[in-house]
Amino acid sequence: MVGVIPLRDVSLAGIAQVGGKNASLGEMIGSLARLGVRVPDGYATTASAFRDFLRGDGLALRIDRALSELDVSDLHALTDTSARIRQWIIEQPFPPDFERELRTAHESVVGDAGGSPDLSWAVRSSATAEDLPDASFAGQQETYLHIRGVESVLDAVRHVFASLYTDRAIVYRTERGYDATAIAISAGVQRMVRSDIGVSGVMFTVDTESGFSDAILITSTYGLGETVVQGTVNPDEFCLYKPSLRAHRPAITKRQCGDKAIAMRFAADTRVGASTLVEPVDPAARKRFSISDAHLEELGRTALIIEEHYGRPMDIEWALDGTDELLYIVQARPETTVAKRDRATVTRFTLTEHSDVLARGHAVGSKIGAGHVRVLHDLTEMHAFEKGDVLIAERTDPDWEPIMRLASAIVTDHGGRTCHAAIVARELGLPAVVGTGNATAAIADGAAVTVSCADGDEGVIYAGLLRYDKTVTTITDLPALPVDIMLNVAVPDQAFELSGIPNSGVGLARMEFIVGSMIGIHPRALLDADTLVPELRAQIADLTAAYESPREFFVRRVAEGISTIAAAFAPRPVIVRLSDFKTNEYVGLLGGGLYEPTEENPMLGWRGASRYASPAFQDCFGMECQALAFVRDDMGLTNVQVMVPFVRTPREGAEALAAMQRHGLRRDSGLKVMMMCEIPSNALRADAFLDLFDGFSIGSNDLTQLTLGVDRDSELVARSFDERDPAVLMLLERAIGACNRRGKYVGICGQGPSDHPDFARWLMEMGITSISLNPDAVIATWRALSAGLASAAVDD
User: Among 443, 483, 436, 484, which Cα is nearest to 463's?
Assistant: First the structure.
């Protein structure tokens, strides 16, 4: 019997011998090292050695008898039985031949690593049914880090064997019908990557919330990665775009700086179970990103290699060694949740009422759940938890899984999108909001709440049991139309999810929404940051600390927002409307009051194209152009097109185009520049404007208000607001006809087609190129247009 195998001699074919985790590590060492994937070497014990170990002194029979008598729904009995079995294993001596093999293998890897007495080791668990495409045993067994000396390694191996019988592992196997006697465990021993003085994290080669396959999601924090997996820190989060990585272009579409309040380090004590301590992170370091762009993109390229080799989305743990500054992969397993999704349907949850917000955090999934709160501070309180309760805890770990599966929703104070609570919530199909910071303190035990993850990256906990809708739409039977159906995308957070709705691209992405949600500071205040009053200067310094400068903060954040939307829909076109804040809206941004005039009628004031060439705003506009040029020219997302809003005259349009050119946003790179058709003069002088622009995107809201002289926000005259008024239709027909005669693009991105299917049908009959709709109106409008075509065919 072979009891120990070098990892370099293991492959995926050896899962039955060394378990999924060790087989995967060996597979990468043997097949991917030559491609630059760096995995620490080591050795693994075999399933045969484990089973032989259990046969000693009748241990296997005692374990089988204890499990056969156990009711896993009895939490007290589960805890007692688990502890008793694990103690039996820890006290059991190894067979002499097996112990000799272990000592010999360890001497060999110590010699290969230079023989230093300061070397430390990671001893990892690997169950023979673990990390399979249809099952995830992640976190159910134990890993022991920073183990020094062969005696401590042997002790750690024995503890790994015992961890096959933790509470959560017993429950998981029982509920999924696995035969406990058929599953064995292997211990993998590898040289320790010193991420305790470096950085570590997790990455997925698919967006875990939407299933978008061209994204790589990376989380990162200082110190050992246990804090990320356990959810004890809110890590930095990044998203990378695979096609840009493959083309060796800048690929980061999202950066989010987590608070990273603590770091897990190694203590002087290197005995099993006593090798780590938690230290506070320096406040200045918390505000910086924990990993460089260069290392992020190296990680991204490594993830691509691993995913391509395995042929499926992967869940990967990585570590940056603080001594040699090299990146290592310490685990790779198939992602098991996204792969199970039904691609033929789109399910959307929508709140139909709102209430006071009790807490906010990172949304996991896109569902809504409701129930009464149970705030649990530790597992001794789990007896109070009932099916359908909303679980609120500081964090969770695998020991919490028996009650997590009873919850209607999960909320934690700490953690990011790759923490334990998030992973389990996805597997269970539950809405979860992680990293709230204060939910356990802010929300009272027993309170009725609604947990919503239906609005993008931010999850919200509302007071009370609110009403919500759930719609399930089959998307495989939508007929072809003679018009393109595009989407209006409000914020980048929703882009990956929305890209799964049938569409021909994005007809409207608003720059001001990106600035409002991702910047929140007046662009001039960022440019003038060094000269502002101390209080405002300090606020801006705090908000922009993760970037090189306030200007860099604006350009990179805007580029990240645009590139997220562009990546989600590539190669389909994404039309980005340049900023169209009104003066009263700019005032609402931090520092805005210093720069914005007071206007009696902001809607007709200093907005849109009139700002771009203005001396007071042109430098601000230059940052927008720089961000757009970076997305197109550097990242290679040339599906981004630009739209200029509120162009009163051809002269104003020419000035806006010249300003774009001066700031590096050039049409000679294939860039198309559209113009919003939203002022009656735009339709009346359509040809003059089309001499300058590549087409029109009709803004029916402003066009209707300005044609009918109606303020749609006034309750006194709002009933007169109707995009279908004959006067408005005359202008629309004129604009559409002019574009069609000249072979130029013409679309509509206003609210009208989303609200009125008959209006959408009229636009289709007029020969409009595209209709851009709010996401929740796409399927209904698509079917209404199809029905109209069928009816017209019958009439003919």
Answer: 443
- What span, in angstroms and rounded, lies between the C-alpha atoms of 134 and 159? 27
Residue 424 has what pLDDT? 83
Q: Band the pLDDT of 275: cuts 50, 70, 90.
A: low
Burial 663-682 (b: 16+ CB within 10 A, else e): bebeeeeebbbbbbbbbbbb
Q: Residues 239, 419, 677, 749: which is the catalytic one?
A: 749
Task: Determine if residue 783 is left, alpha or beta; phi over 0 gives left, psi from -120 to 50 gives alpha, anything else beta.
Answer: alpha
- Judged against a pLDDT cut of 60, whether residue 562 lies above it is answered with yes
Of 106, 295, 414, 420, catalytic: 420
Domains within the chain, CATH numbers bracketed: 4-192 (3.30.1490.20), 196-325 (3.30.470.20), 342-472 (3.50.30.10), 478-795 (3.20.20.60)
Is there a catalytic annotation at residue 620? no
pLDDT, position 133: 46
Residue 460, by phi and psi: left (phi above 0), alpha (psi -120 to 50) or beta?
Answer: beta
Per-residue model confidence as pLDDT tens digits over 581-619 = 999 999 999 999 999 999 999 989 999 999 999 999 999
State pLDDT tens for residues 415-424: 887 788 888 8
Region of residue 390 (left: phi > 0; alpha: psi -120 to 50; beta: else):
beta
Full-model pTM: 0.87
Measured CA to CA in angstroms, residue 542 lies from 260, 369, 415 at distances of 15, 35, 22
- Ranges 175-184, 210-219, 546-555, 777-786: which has the least confidence: 175-184
Asked if the bond preceding 571 is cis, omega within 30° of 0, the reply is yes
Could you give the C-alpha distances from 468 to 209, 354, 432, 465, 497, in angstroms and in order?
A: 20, 10, 17, 9, 19
Q: What is the largest CA-CA distance in the chain?
A: 94
Token output for 496: 């990956």
Please give the DSSP secondary-structure letter assigned to residue 379. G
Q: pLDDT at residue 67 above 70?
A: yes
Pair 244, 284: CB distance under 8 Å: no
- Count of beta carbons in the 10 Å neighbourhood of residue 248: 10
CA distances from 18 to 12, 55, 79, 447, 585 (A): 9, 18, 27, 48, 61
Please give the Cα distance from 347 to 362 (Å, whole number): 20
- Provide DSSP, 593-653: GGTPPP-S-GGGSS-THHHHT-TTTHHHHHHHHHHHHIIIIIS--TTEEEEE----SHHHH
Q: Are 20 and 183 in contact (CB under 8 A)?
A: no
Per the annotation, the verdict on 420 as an active-site residue is: yes
Tell me: pLDDT of 137 over 50: no
pLDDT tier, 171 (very low <50, low <70, confident <90, very high otherwise): confident
